[in-house]
Automatic annotation (TrEMBL), chains A, B:
Keywords for this protein: Lyase, Periplasm, Signal
Domain Heparinase II/III-like C-terminal: 376-583
Cleaved signal peptide residues: 1-21
Cellular component GO terms, alphabetical: periplasmic space
InterPro entries from the UniProt entry: Alginate_lyase_dom, Chondroitin_lyas, Hepar_II_III_C
Species annotation: Niabella ginsenosidivorans
Name of this chain's protein: Heparinase
Length: 711, 711
């Protein structure tokens, strides 16, 4: 590995000299493919549809007067949206120019760029900036400026030959060169950071370097400002991804970062094929795309871990790029075409042409979702993300165990968090980020105060909270310093299991979670077994919330919701944002809760060493601006002066059919859940099916050869 | 009209004598159509798919042992669901027997019926009954027994010829005759009622009369126990429907009642065609089906007025029957085929064959949704339901004004209630019923206590509440005695308006609502104008809630949600079930609230004679069993010692695109909403578009020739 890196380092030095005599266009569309692309947009439905969309957008853009406003508004505001419109207009018109040869589209791009060139140098840091360091000049955040340039430079490359040299000189001298200087100068801190903002910045610089034939900027993009390889593209590929292609900030930001990683890779491949960028680090980019797709559920939803906007699916543009480039340039596996079909669009580009052609030729096969452990950390040893799946893509159970590193500033304090999907929908869900993306009236479209006070806190997740305090007391610095560890992972069909351990989140408490999908012949769907243990000598309060989707319909115990008054459950670490609806102290060790979600029943049977209290809670307290959306949880709670084990078995059963007005299987099959042989090294969970058949699941924590067995 | 009735009365007497020499089968499938049907299930996709479903269900049924348990459980319980399974099994096997000629399906029906015949007479009233009067013997409610028989007798008719006469005698003597006696004897009160339970009861009796060739029971079904025409089928058709085909209990129960109305009609048509049942009362049944379909939104959702389960759509079986019978027997309008396509199934029957064939021949045209006033009351003069629509079926605005009669026991206290749909979804919605249909753990699957204490109360609807008391103080008897009145209806494109008046709901207060869809050239979508007036000399508290779907994103005024404690808004008339989240007393007459629903923005601009208080509320207080689902409203409130006018203009604007991460049109175009020329007879509402163009809408309450104008 280290050797490989050194070889790459010298390879870069060597081939950098070969960057010269640029041909335009040379990024997503290359000149030689234009004839095939022109034929393809009339032939292959996916490409045709995608092109039609772009053509319509380009025509809408040129129908409007060229508008380059002085930057003024924050995210979602008028000037913000106008500058966003401009960069998509530039790219769309560039594409349409190549496909039609109609010069009016190139002229529009030229006009816009000349106006920017006339003004850009006079724009200081953005007036709506939050701090100087991260300020852009066109946008309130430099990140948006980087994105602007990644789009714009592609559009410029596409119309390059249609702009006369004098105008090109004007645009390059007064817009692109000042931008390069701003990105590598004022923004050097970000340019050299190992972070998605850094990726966007260096991709903008590198692409611009290629298009303007400025190899020195390409070199900086590849190897950092100092050309020492401690930052830049290769360093980011080394450090931000695990060997499995998992991205340190989590799937939501992986999606976002993939886009500049891939576009820049495509440009490197076109301009410096001998760098073999797609081969780098055992085809890391291919793994990154695959692991990204594996971090989605069958409905396309990206696992909403860390700061994630929840309506993101695999239909986002970033994943359209990912799938198309993966298929065309790295690994033309036909199951990627399944995703492309779901996306319903391709990039109008060389890569998109290949995908659309293959789909047209009916090569698509169902996307291969797998159960796997995605290691985290540059060396793959800093915990990871466990994913278990069962069933066909049309009705899949999927369980996710988050035992990754913190994920930097966008990370949540959710060690050993669990997500559960079934029947095409979320069952145990994650709040994601507290943010209304680009909706200016809501905190300028950025993260809301409740993102810190609620969404990041441990109690907002399906994991254990000790003493009603968040992991690491909510300290990012401390959380970033350590990571959970993989204990065991085995995706053996019928008895899939994963386990991870967290020793640092709480002083004096070691947390372990074992999560399994257990198939038993009496039931159609596997059971979700979840065993959470806290090893400690001290006395602690343990709360394990399950943020469920759906409507509560039954419980094995009596409870009475507070009728005339609601109070927050606490005053800090997120508890101040939860209304306590009901608290039921059970008088026996076992109990169950049934809820109905999308016409299917779910019963969570639970037990512990001592009777639990079940708290029913709803988000919304201490939220003066009503920024929070409504989520509901049942929370298993208890005090313990020694080790504590919280066991649950969630059973999927029955169906309600609103068309036929029938209900079947409303009563769960599992009963008598008991914890026996309970020691630090071994636990046995007993349960009954249909009151007749007894099953015993034994977990041997210290025996990797016999970690779990079912009898 | 009266003459027509008398003629029908004699016609019935006359033709009743002609009921003889039955041929089997003779209800939904008639013997002569069987060859065509057998060919059709292999040819027409809709019929093929529908038959495949029925065949699979029939095969699943006969694979199970014949099970006829002693009745024990309430709705959703084991015996309840088994008896439901049995009647669908009987009907499905009957159909499959006719289509395959395979005697095993007929044998299954015979076995089941012989078992029922062996036991039925020994079953007393159901042990889980709520009261004797409405108890069934197979089910806890006689209603379910009626439904059981409507299905079962059809299945029996289908296999009649395959059962030997001795067994038939057994079944008829010990099952069907005792059932006829039970329905017309113990259940006579229901049999003779003018109510949907009565419809099911008489349809069961009438169908059984035809199949068993017992004309005396057919006569009773048509004309009531006493054969005097004061009850029975004709009386129900006269009294339960308005001349426009609107059903007194509202759309949800219309759907339910249509089913027995139509099946019995089909049997009458087959056995006594000279009764011309489909021509009765100016083709009332056709109007009833059409008005039912007009009481849906473009997503298929049935307007959830009165006690309605909200996931009901036009895909329900009852409407499959409605559409197929309407198309085949009454009015073969090709836009009905559009609905059939959405339903994705047809009845495997003579009628379904015609529909599937026509769909196969590509005759379908988009369903014609119209703006219309559906009168209520047998004479059409007891108020009604106003519906305004604008735009294509793919993106339609739809506004509903409920000014109907109370609708008997399932009616809500929601005089002048408003529903608003747009963009394929609910914008201002109705809670519907508080009920988890057939989910036994929730109140036995029946109506929950909160249906009375919450769902029926005025404040649960989008209408004015006076002094925080429900219409008629929640008295059904008083509410049933009077009705609101139509003031004006005009569906002129560009300026559609409806107005109704309610004089009786509150003593000393006359309520009027004017609701309009106003098209102005600057905006793509019409504005929803709503002017609610309360005329009174006394001092009153007025609350006008808007139960909105989506997430609040902006308001023109400062507000601060209660952070550390929530209290219910009141202690009765539904107010005890709402948590008051925030209360903002405005300091000027006008204000606005913006919310985001399914990627589209809605801004409600409002004004009144004096500054309003805006209350933000959420359901869920005083709900110990957590039976309520979460709904949110903003409520415009004020006190007034004279007349009060609450004006709102709801504007649809902008779009968020989660794929492209763009937001456009987040800022509303309307501003400066003011109420001028405010008198009892005339009001002018002024508003500005884009701050530039002024519009004035004037309502002349007493001038039908110039009721509303826009300048």
């Amino acid at each position: 590995m280290r050797h490989l890196k050194i070889i790459y380092f010298f390879a870069c030095l060597l081939f950098s000299l070969a960057v010269s005599g640029q041909k335009h266009p040379g990024i997503m569309i290359t000149g030689e493919q234009v004839p095939a692309l022109r034929a393809g947009v009339n032939r292959y439905p996916l490409l045709k549809r995608s092109y039609r969309e772009i053509k319509a957008a380009a025509d809408a853009a040129i129908a409007q007067p060229v508008t380059v406003p002085v930057p003024k508004d924050g995210g979602g505001g008028v000037t913000h949206e106008q500058h966003k419109k401009n960069y998509t207009g530039i790219l769309n018109c560039g594409i349409v120019y190549q496909l039609t040869g109609n010069k009016k589209y190139a002229d529009y791009v030229k006009e816009l760029l000349l106006q920017y060139a006339a003004k850009y140098e006079s724009w200081p840091l953005h007036p709506a900036r939050k701090n100087n360091k991260e300020s852009g000049r066109i946008f309130w955040q430099s990140l948006n400026d980087f994105v602007w340039q990644v789009y714009t430079i592609q559009g410029y490359d596409l119309v390059y030959d249609a702009i006369d040299p004098k105008d090109r000189e004007e645009i390059e001298a007064h817009l692109f060169l000042p931008i390069l200087q701003f990105f590598t100068g004022h923004c050097a801190y970000i340019f050299n950071s190992i972070h998605n903002h850094g990726t966007w910045c260096l991709a903008a610089v590198g692409l611009t370097g290629y298009v303007l034939n400025k190899p020195e900027y390409v070199q900086m993009a590849l190897k950092g400002s100092k050309l020492d390889g401690k930052s830049g593209y290769w360093a980011q590929l080394d450090q931000l991804f695990s060997p499995d292609g998992y991205y340190a900030e989590g799937p939501y930001y992986q999606r976002y970062a993939l886009f500049p990683f891939l576009i820049f890779a495509k440009a490197i491949q076109n301009h410096q094929p001998r760098l073999h960028v797609f081969e780098y680090r055992n085809k890391l980019l291919a793994k990154a795309i695959n692991s990204m797709l594996q971090c989605t559920y069958t409905n396309g939803a990206i696992f909403p871990l860390n700061d994630a906007i929840k309506d993101k699916t695999s239909e986002t543009w970033e994943l359209v790029y990912g799938v198309d480039i993966a298929y065309s340039d790295i690994n033309n596996s036909n199951d990627l075409l399944d995703v492309a079909q779901q996306q319903g669009r391709v990039i109008v580009s060389d890569a998109g042409l290949k995908v659309a052609k293959a789909v047209y030729e009916k090569k698509a096969t169902p996307f291969k979702y797998v159960s796997e452990w995605l290691s985290d950390g540059a060396d793959g040893k800093a915990g990871g993300l466990g994913i278990l799946r069962d069933g066909p893509n049309t009705d899949q159970q999927c369980v996710v165990l988050k035992a990754t590193t913190q994920g930097m500033g966008h990370g949540h304090f959710d060690r050993l968090n669990l997500l559960y999907y079934d029947n095409g929908t979320e069952v145990f869900s994650d709040y994601g980020a507290a943010r209304f993306l680009n909706i200016e009236s809501k905190g300028g479209g950025g993260y809301l105060p409740e993102n810190n006070s609620w969404a990041k806190q441990t109690v907002a997740h399906n994991t254990l909270v000790v003493d009603r305090v968040s992991d690491f007391k909510g300290s990012l610095e401390q959380a970033q310093a350590t990571h959970p560890d993989l204990v065991y992972f085995n995706a053996k069909p019928g008895l899939q299991v994963m386990s991870a351990e967290e020793k640092n989140a709480y002083e004096g408490v070691v947390l372990n979670r074992v999560t399994a999908l257990i198939t038993i012949p009496e039931l159609k769907k596997p059971l979700l077994l979840d065993v959470f243990t806290a090893l400690s000598n001290g006395e602690h309060q343990y709360d394990l919330p399950f943020w469920y989707n759906g409507q509560l319909v039954d419980a094995s115990f009596q409870f009475k919701a507070f009728a005339g008054e609601l109070k927050p459950m606490g005053d800090k670490f997120g508890y101040q944002h939860i209304w306590l609806n009901a608290a039921a102290a059970l008088n026996k060790e076992a109990g169950s809760i049934t809820f109905l979600n999308k016409n299917r029943f779910y019963t969570t049977h639970f037990t512990s060493e001592n009777p639990l209290t079940v708290n029913f809670v709803t988000t919304g307290a201490n939220d003066p601006a009503m920024n929070l959306t409504t989520s509901r949880a049942f929370m298993l709670s208890r005090k313990s002066s020694g080790n504590a084990t919280l066991v649950s078995i969630t059973e999927t059963h029955g169906v309600t059919d609103p068309v036929y007005e029938t209900v079947t299987g409303a009563v769960p099959a599992i009963s008598g859940v008991t914890l026996i042989n309970n020691s630090e090294g071994k636990k046995t969970i007993v349960f009954w099916v249909n009151g007749k058949k007894e099953y015993r699941v034994t977990i041997n924590y210290n025996d990797k050869n016999n970690f779990i067995n079912l009898k």
